[in-house]
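ok trying again, last paste got cut off:
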Amino acid sequence: MALIYNKQQLKQITQLMPTMNQNTFEITEDLLATKGQRLLHHIIDLVPQYAFMYGLSYGLFYLGEFTGNYTLNDIWNGMSEIEDYIVSYIFMFIYYFFME
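nice, full thing came through this time. structure:
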């Protein structure tokens, strides 16, 4: 389906086009977060991360208590520092991907 414009409509469209293509935005001081706000946002982001990791630790422990099988708990508690970093960064990536 072709669009048909009269001369007046074309003139209006061409006058608007330069303003539509301007992708400039001025960042002023009131738009920037202060150091206190950034610290607060960081703490707010840390709370669910720690809650998830501690919840997973306790969940695996109690799962072992109820079932008598401590394999998952032993794997979780026996991770090396590198494995701990890998699991933590994977969770942080997923968390920030969905929350930010």
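cool. Residues 35-67 form the longest helix (33 residues). The radius of gyration is 27 Å.
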